[in-house]
Design goal:
501 residues, alpha/beta, Amidase signature (AS) enzymes, eleven-stranded mixed sheet, binds glutamine
């Protein structure tokens, strides 16, 4: 292990600026760490060490020329759902196992323009459908805090790589919790931006009205730096908001950044309901006390339509998925079924070839979602399911709008449970879906959500496992959420804990 493996972006940036370390050295340290721990974590689908070293050399030249940006020369992992030019982008699916994009996703492009160093592509649930990284067609990722447990999902590789000291930060994507929930389960920080703030161009679509790219890092400040780089209008995404990246800044260490006086926080009682583990509840309640001690006022609030969120999400997301994934037909992209004998091939028609491609190319969860979505959208059921879900979506949005008349932000658990054993929930999809009860309302309403480490749960049968607290704010309130999260982190040590790996 090297002293460089646990640096934050801010720390690495300071060392690079003072020329106390080079990007080549940082990158080499990251690659050596990967070499040492990747067999037990498996956070990557594809490693790009040669590319990373070339990018590191280019970054060192930028630094030498005085052309450095905040992310120049710092190693990152990119979830394998974002297109990377010349580097295969699988979405953890057999369907795209050999797909090599000819362009970069806008978010990736913006990192690379700053001189970021890409270590490789992160493991995930297939097409971002899942909460545990067990739906990857290639291999599961293990939680760095306990190798017998999941890292969360779907951006499990992103969170695990940061928690394990492999990457300094990572890009994930979040449709119903996929950045925040794995961040919580791995003890790192994750931000889902407001819908439309970060371009979805080059993000392989799962549910287009919910998907957002977001950063995972070792501190709130690192998420702020990454968001500053990737946010802002992109003409290639029709849902991209017409605004420039505001540049999210936080007070530096030592400054008076702990003052939350005047800030009004709401605690939605519906998020502290049945199914919430005691240890998680205690950690979040303690975090609330800390926020109060920092000057915030805390009151109980209610979001009564929360009870519809899970059902609403599991109609809307599969419906959009069934439309988005229709493009994988064995002709235009990726995998094409080739199991026919010569005679069969002549006899099989186009429909049969398509059916075989989809049967063999998609894993069971993706197939389930496509079937659910196709059913919900079909004639005769559309009004009963899809339309109803859209109506519930409006109620959920209205709940948030009403509550943000009286408070500036909400505090909830990120996940009702800590990391669970690999295999524990794979047989019961509803149990798996329930993990996202606290995160998916945020996507339904298009709001920003930030998960910050806020404690650990110890048990006889497992090592200490991290807990995350979620901060939710109104549309485009990222700066406020980052300020609260940063103040909390300055007052606590949770984000500085490292797994014994
Ligand atoms: N676990 C949720 C799902 O399976 C959310 C996934 C995500 O945010 N991409 O749909």
């Amino acid at each position: 292990m090297s002293e460089y493996n646990w640096l934050t972006i801010q720390e690495a940036r300071a060392l690079l600026a003072r020329r106390e370390v080079s990007s080549v050295e940082l990158t080499r340290a990251a690659l050596e760490r990967i070499e040492a721990v990747e067999d037990s974590v498996r956070s990557f689908i594809t490693l790009t060490p040669d590319l990373a070293m070339a990018q590191a050399e280019a970054a060192d030249r930028m630094l030498a020329d005085g052309n450095a940006f905040p992310l120049t020369g710092i190693p990152v992992q990119v979830k394998d759902v974002m297109c990377t030019e010349g580097v295969r982008t699988t979405c953890a699916s057999r369907m795209l196992a050999d797909y090599v994009p000819v362009y970069n996703a806008t978010a990736v492009e913006r990192l690379l323009r700053q001189g970021a160093v890409m270590l490789g592509k992160g493991n995930m649930d297939e097409f971002a459908m899942g909460s545990s990284c067990e739906n990857s067609a290639f291999h599961p990722t293990r939680n760095p805090w306990d190798a017998a447990r999941v890292p969360g999902g779907s951006s499990g590789g992103a969170a695990a790589s940061v928690a394990a000291g492999e990457a300094v930060y990572a890009l994930g994507s979040d449709t119903g919790g996929s950045v925040r929930q794995p961040a919580a389960l791995c003890g790192v920080t994750g931000l889902k931006p407001s819908y439309g703030l970060v371009s979805r161009y080059g993000l392989v679509a799962y549910a287009s009205s919910l998907d957002q790219i977001g950063p995972i890092g070792r501190s709130v400040a690192d998420c702020a730096l990454t968001l500053s780089a990737i946010a802002g209008h992109d003409p290639r995404d029709a849902t991209s908001l017409p605004l420039k990246s505001p540049g999210y800044s936080l007070p530096g260490a030592g400054a008076d950044n702990g003052d939350l006086r005047g800030l009004r926080l709401g605690v939605p009682q519906e998020y502290f309901a049945e199914g919430l583990e005691d240890g998680v509840r205690q950690a979040v309640e303690q975090a609330l006390a800390t926020l109060e001690a920092l000057g915030a006022s805390v009151r109980e609030v209610s979001l009564p339509s929360t009870k519809y969120a899970l059902a609403c999400y599991y109609i809307i997301a599969p419906s959009e998925c069934s439309a988005n994934l229709a493009r994988y037909d064995g002709v235009k992209y990726g995998y094409s079924y080739d199991g026919y004998s010569y005679d069969e091939k002549a006899a099989a028609g186009m429909w049969d070839a398509m059916e075989q491609t989809r049967r063999h190319g998609f894993g069971p969860e993706v197939t389930r979602r496509i079937m659910l979505g196709t059913f919900a959208l079909s004639a005769g059921y559309y009004d009963a399911y899809y339309l109803k879900a859209q109506q519930a979506r409006t109620l959920i949005r209205q709940d948030f709008a009403a509550v943000f008349e009286t408070v500036d932000a909400l505090v909830t658990p990120t996940s009702p449970v800590v990391a669970f054993p690999i295999g524990e929930k794979t047989g019961d999809p509803v149990q798996m879906y329930l993990i996202d009860v606290c995160t998916l309302p945020v996507n339904i309403a298009g709001l920003p959500g930030l998960s910050v480490p806020c404690g650990f749960v110890s048990g006889d049968s497992h090592p200490p496992l991290p807990v995350g607290m979620q901060l939710i704010g109104p549309h485009l309130s990222e700066q406020t959420l980052l300020r609260i999260g940063h103040a909390y982190e300055q007052a606590t040590e949770w984000h500085k804990q490292r797994p014994p790996l």
